[in-house]
Structure formats: C-alpha cells, structure tokens
Amino acid sequence: QVQLVESGGGLVQAGGSLILSCAASGRTFSSYNMGWFRQAPGKEREFVIAISWGGGSTYADSVKGRFTISRDNAKNTVYLQMNSLKPEDTAVYYCAARPGWATGEYDYWGQGTQVTVTS
What we know:
This protein is mostly beta strands. The chain is about 0% helix and about 50% strand. The chain has strands spanning about 5, 10-15, 20-25, 30-40, 45-50, 55-60, 65-70, 75-80, 90-100, 110, 115-119. Strands 2, 4, 5, 6, 9, 10 and 11 form a seven-stranded mixed sheet that branches. The protein has a four-stranded antiparallel sheet with strand order 1-3-8-7, with no helix packed on it. It starts with a strand and ends with a strand.
C-alpha cells in the first residue's frame, strides 16, 4: 500500500511559477512510476506529466516546455515544477503511483491540491 500526500498548491498570477510536492509512504518508492494528473471544473481528469522509476519523463503537449517533473528517492518525494502558468492550468492536481512493472491505470492516488491561475 502506498499513501500519497500532495502539497504546494495555491493562487498564482499568469506567468508565475509554482512547485507541487508529493510525499509517498512505503519503502519501495524508488521502484514506482509517478505521475501528475489534473482535473479542471466540469472536465475529466487528464494526464499532465510522469516520471519512471528510472528517471525518464513523459509530458502532455499542453505543458511541454513549461512543466518539469523530478523525484528524490531519498525523500520519497516527487516534484512538479510549473512555470509560465496559464489560467487554463487551473485545476486540482493529483499525484499518482504505480509499480514500475505495471502499465495502464495508476494504482494509488493522493487527495489532490488546488492550483488557481489568475489572469
């Protein structure tokens, strides 16, 4: 079982930056693939960015060049650095995890953290 706790959300002006953190429980964090998803009001949850257990990352086109993901296995934490934020980035951001060998849906989810970008 993995528990995920996001932090770092808040209110920011367009063009600004924000860093989200996701702290994970458990001793096998380094073997997990980690992802960030978001859900805006009235919309379905969408993939944002992910980092594999080996450090490779994948991005949604909408955030490429603006968002980066990193992980600190010693701290069991994954980070989402968000730059050049736009009002359309406003959403609840969720951290997710799945074992490195798994594919498909993520198994574990955090409670989410709100990010609001004002114009």
